[in-house]
Design goal:
mainly beta
């Protein structure tokens, strides 16, 4: 079994490294020194806590919450199989996660208080479930699953209830717009992939790219544009599309792949992975 530790490098370390010279890499800070399988780290809205999954063995996984420096780690969910993707409510009081119920043989979307307590099951969703996040106002959750045997993008009230189909097919990387009125995603049709948005209230879907080799990545903080990666030039580069005008611009031009852009809080910068 592959073992991982959660690591964090801070902006302060990056800045200090830059002052000392570009040949020095930032120092990695180990947050989880114990030997176990760690994954799916998620930072709380105020940055004071992290949630993550810890795997003792394939049938013995749980969500843990710790201080941002890795201290005061505590398990907040029961041990079960295939726990994944803990994410925070906007107010930082609740963690959303998926677990697999061995009795029903189904994925279950649940919430648990960030300080620990009894989990609340929201949706039982067959064998497929991913892409779940709270809306910005915390009232709804989007997720992709095969409820009733049909894979679709759905939403459900944050307290549970009957899921509502938003896009009646498999999509990937769904993410609420900052104002909660739209969900952006990678819309896949055959071997092609497009960046698209759907109006949550009406279900109206609009494709923002046409080349068929794009992957949605992130919303700008003001919701005016979307960053994505595209292979239209042969390798992956970072692009952005303006929602109102539909105009696109290429932000990186590299001979190797650039992927996974993420906006800074002020929207002026993008961090991304590069195979340079």
């Amino acid at each position: 079994m592959r073992m991982r530790s959660l690591v964090l490098t801070t902006a302060v370390l990056v800045a200090a490294c830059a002052e000392r010279g570009a040949d020095r890499l930032p120092e990695l800070v180990v947050l989880t020194p114990e030997v176990a399988g760690y994954d799916d780290v998620s930072r709380s809205p105020d940055g004071s806590l992290i949630a993550y999954t810890r795997r003792e063995n394939p049938d013995n996984e749980a969500v843990w919450v710790a201080d941002a420096d890795g201290g005061n780690a505590r398990r907040v969910t029961p041990f079960t199989a295939n726990v994944s993707e803990p994410s925070w409510s906007p107010d930082g009081t609740t963690v959303l996660y998926q677990a697999f119920d061995l009795n029903s043989q189904s994925a279950v979307l649940s919430t648990v208080p960030a300080q620990g307590g009894e989990p609340t099951a929201l949706v039982e969703a067959g064998l497929v479930m991913y892409g779940f996040r709270y809306s910005p106002d915390g009232t709804r959750i989007h997720f992709v699953s095969d409820v009733d045997g049909a894979i679709a993008l759905r939403t459900v009230a944050s307290g549970g209830g009957v899921p509502v189909v938003v896009v009646p097919r498999r999509v990937t990387r769904p993410l609420w717009s900052p104002d909660g009125t739209m969900i952006a995603m990678t819309d896949r049709v055959g071997d092609s992939s497009f960046v698209a948005v759907v109006e949550v209230a009406t279900g109206g879907l609009r494709r923002l790219t046409t080349e068929g080799v794009e992957l949605f990545e992130d919303w700008s903080p003001d919701g005016s544009e979307i960053a994505y990666s595209s292979r239209r030039t042969g390798q992956a580069d970072i692009w952005a599309v303006n929602l109102a005008a539909g105009s696109q611009r290429q932000l990186t031009v590299d001979v190797r792949d650039d992927t996974r852009p993420s906006y800074s809080p002020d929207g002026k910068w993008l961090a991304y992975n590069s195979e340079r």
